[in-house]
Amino acid sequence: MATLNDFPPQVRAEVKQVREQVATLHEQLIKWNLVVWTAGNVSQRLRTADLMVIKPSGVRYEYLTPASMVVTDLDGNVVDGTEAPSSDTLSHAYIYRHMPDVFGVVHTHSTYATAWAATGKNIPCGLTMMGDEFGGPVPVGPFRLIGSEEIGRGVVETLKKYPHSPAVLMQNHGPFTIGKDAEAAVKAAAMTEEVAHTMWAASQLGDIIEIAPEDIAKLNDRYQNVYGQH
């Protein structure tokens, strides 16, 4: 089994940088009330090698440091680290192997998004910000048991049907989000919880008015290609 010392200097340098980024991004999960205790995880794939950096399993967030982040290959084998990797490692690895444009994955158990997952219902697209960010509803994926790559398989299968969405609610489990890097996936996790909360509140007031698909497409195109700084 390869160790980190078997990789060239540029890979080891990127590992150091990504460990710092991933450790810091776990603080954002707490800031946005997306996790409790040790639940949830962030990972980022390297660009210089088929490796990823992920949270260690069962370690409280206040104890996480760059050094405690675990490096694995894209089959989930540990390459560097003193802790056991997250129980979701094989699923993160599956997503990276099958979605080559994805370089960040996040899993949370945020309250409202997970509530939608418990119902097995998509979050309907009743907000322009959902058209912007998700290009439609936030979809529900199938029920899968934890500990193998099956959750990752369910994420990939679902997102193939919803190619504009960076999020999927795994039934009876919780949200998984993807991005061009770990920060983008954390943003998607925060946005998922925000729309889950708002659309739940809307459902208490009455019937949700869903946005027409042609308008969703226009919203998403503007947000992805015009909005912000370029």
Structural features:
single chain, 230 residues, alpha+beta, 7 helices, Aldolase_class_II_sugar_metab, zinc, metal-binding, Aldolase_II/adducin_N_sf
Describe the structure.
The chain contains 7 helices and 8 strands; from the N terminus they run H-E-E-E-E-H-E-H-H-E-H-E-E-H-H. The chain is α+β, with helices and mostly antiparallel strands. An 8-stranded mixed β-sheet has the order 4-3-2-1-5-8-7-6. The model has no long low-confidence stretch (mean pLDDT 97). Its EC number is 5.1.3.4. Its cofactor is Zn(2+). Belongs to the aldolase class II family. AraD/FucA subfamily. It catalyses: L-ribulose 5-phosphate = D-xylulose 5-phosphate.
